[in-house]
Amino acid sequence: MPEIQNRALGLGIDPSSLDFDSIILPPGEEDFGNDDEILHEEGLPEYETGFGNVIIVDNLPVTEKHEKLEKVVRKIFKQIGAIRDGGLWIPLDPSTQETLGYCFIEYNTPQEAEMAKEKTNRYKFDRLHTFTVNMFDEFYKYMNVPDEWTPSEIKPYEENLQEWLTDEKARDQFVIRAGTSTEVFWNDARQLLSDPVFPSPNWKDSIVQWSPLGTYLATVQKQGAVVWGGASKFISLMRFVQPQVKQIDFSPGEKYLVTCSIHDTHRVVLNIFDMRTWKLMRDFRGNGGDFCGVSWPIFKWGGEKYFARIGKNVISVYETDTFTLLDKKLMRVDNVADFCWSPTDPVFAVFVPELTNQPARVSLVQIPEKVELRQKNLFSVSNCKMYWQSHGEYLAVKVDRYTKTKKSTYAGYELFRIKERDIPIQVLELDDKNDKIIDFAWEPKGHRFAVIHGDNNISFYSMRTAGGSGWVSKLASIKSKQANTLHWSPAGRFIVLAGLKGFDGQLEFYDVDELAIMATGEHFMATDVEWDPMGRYVATSVTSVREMENGFCIWSFNGKLLYRVPKDQLIQFLWRPRPPSLLTQEQEDEIARELKKYSKKYEAEDQDMFMRLNEQDRKKRRELREEWESWVLRWKRVHEEEREVRDLSRGGDVSDDEVYEAIEVEAEEVLDVCEEVVE
Predict the structure, then answer these.
(1) Res. 243: pLDDT tops 50
(2) How far is the C-alpha of 279 from the C-alpha of 273, rounded, in Å?
(3) If 0-12 CB within 10 Å is exposed, 13-18 middle and 19+ buried, where does residue 122 land?
(4) Which DSSP string do the residues of 572-583 spell out, in sequence order?
(5) Residues 35, 37, 41, CA angle at the centre, nearest 5°?
């Protein structure tokens, strides 16, 4: 009893003021038995001491139907861990026999209680009630809050994760993974080399991936995913423990990290972590068949507020406020085959193939209302592929249709103008509709797109015409190019027409504004082409899928080869993304108008760098010449030192100083004789 009194006084409670008769014990705990009997019992199991395994759930409905409420609450919380016998207690008001709006839940372990708190806090129980979940032990912390406020200790800010953006030379970074090592470099194109960011950290990981805004670099190790970042060097910021991780993905705004582990062919685990708190927000577990046929990433993000995945006849849309299904319902779409989010709005496009007597269709659905904004029925469809423009202004749907004989297919495009009233749709067919479409790509931030079709012909189109009318127009066509992939600059206007695989790395740098080829080049056996995030440089690489010529090349935007780096067993080359510009469109337009004023400064810097490079080149040539002369002089000295040895070995007959007489002898030999009668 003294211990209880001391504990009560420590919590600021006067035991003499308590009415113990009014305390209602949870069911099954009215009889505590005899203390002496309990002390002398043997073989009792060891239970968790303290209240670390107890949670308090607030914002429950106040109702007389407490038994029904208990069943529902138990069903929710037992999914996370085993609740002890009698471990769910919903207090009642003695006068009304109604619940008081909260309950206590006791798990077997503190880990289960912590997991229950993380997964159910802010859980929407119904339209009017959202759970607030706290650990029981946290109430001691709240009870001991001092009466007088004291300022918290301000810790010095150690790492600025965006400091790399302030590089004086405005350089970009890239990461390469070759063999078992991973390294990060600056692209120092002015000095025609790659400059290490810091000495190799000796990462030996299976996957590396930048976050979408370039703040973090994630690597995958045996025990999970590690997130790196920093200013002058990369340091380990977060570790997400999940054995056997095979894939990782970030949300578009870097708030969440998705990891996928495959433990065997029958068990797949997907975890979603909060990047700010490192907490597990939601996990998804299933058999291999549950995710069969779904390409990575399994979850597709609609901004930071929604994410979704496709299932059999359903699309599961989740909201990140609660990490539960939107409206607690699956979105039923019979025979759904594919969907993709708009890059800018909570709208996704859905493709449904033909089913019995129903035609195929493409629909635009707005979230969270789940309202269909537009639908287009399609007939005799073999397949569809959807392409969003980067600003979400247009959607292109490539439709493969059967011919009348059903023995072959032809392709065309359905072009949706998302931002215009009633979302008008235009049909685009190629000049020769039997041409096979090889590749398609929108111009980033623009209204143009390019198509490779037929015998590697390339056509450019615009969603705007010269008169400003909203009708698609053809800009130009290029015939029979050695290209099978399209790579637009992130800034638009420029595009690389690349011939990979069968074309062995043929490259053409094309200016779409002028409709002119700027340069041609070749990176033999190239497998990948990637623009830097500012659209200034292009990297081409030969990865380890090819057994030879592994390495990468850096080109200028107009097709000048700047430098080449051989790298055995190159697996990945990834530019570091940049966050969106902080400048407004008006500020960017002002800079463009005043570009000549800024150009003088940078032209002077370029000239200075050019002079330094020339001086470095001259210095290198001078060093090579001096090295050669030194080598010749050294061997001349050795030759003089060994003169006596050579004379002795020749018996004095021949000296190095004697003059030799060269005699030329001509010999003639008849190889063949042929007689020919001339009339």
Answers:
(1) yes
(2) 5
(3) middle
(4) EEEEPP-PPPSS
(5) 120
Which regions of 130-279 does DSSP assign to beta strands (E)? 132-135, 173-178, 181-188, 193-196, 207-210, 217-221, 224-229, 235-241, 245-250, 256-264, 267-274
Which residues, in sequence order, are bridge partners of residue 183?
176
Torsion sign (Cα): 438, 444, 449, 455: negative
In 298-346, which ranges are E strands?
Answer: 300-302, 306-311, 314-319, 324-325, 331-332, 338-341
CA–CA separation, 239 vs 223, rounded Å? 9
Between residues 157 and 622, the one the model is more confident about: 622
Which has more confidence, 281 or 395?
A: 395
DSSP element (H, E) containing 531: strand 528-531
- 550 touches 570 (CB < 8 A): yes
pTM of the model: 0.72
Nearest-angstrom CA–CA distance, 35 and 37: 5
For residue 29, the model assigns a pLDDT of 41
CB 421 within 8 A of CB 485: no
The pLDDT score that the predictor gives to residue 302 is 94
What DSSP assignment string belongs to 416-432?
Answer: EETTSTT--EEEEE-SS
Mean pLDDT of 484-500: 95
First-to-last alpha carbon distance for the chain, in angstroms, is 143
Whether the pLDDT of residue 139 is over 80: the answer is no
Which has the higher per-residue pLDDT, 30 or 99?
A: 99
Whether 542 shows a pLDDT value over 80: the answer reads yes
State residue 528 phi and psi, 5-degree precision.
Answer: -140, 150
Q: Which residue's entry shows tokens 């059999």?
A: 312
Residues in a beta bridge with 247: 260
The pLDDT assigned to 156 comes to 66
Calculate the dihedral angle through the C-alpha atoms of 234, 237, 238, 243, rounding to the nearest 10 degrees.
30
Q: What is the mean pLDDT of residues 132-136?
A: 90
Per cent of the chain over pLDDT 70 is 86
Q: What are phi and psi of 70, to 5 degrees?
A: -65, -40
Integer Cα distance of 389 and 488 in angstroms:
12
- C-alpha 160/C-alpha 101 separation (Å) is 45
How many Å apart are CA 254 and CA 523, to the nearest integer?
34
Cβ atoms < 10 Å from Cβ of 494: 22
Separation between Cα atoms, residue 501 and residue 527, nearest integer Å: 6
| pLDDT tier at 206, thresholds 50, 70, 90 | confident
d(CA 622, CA 645): 36
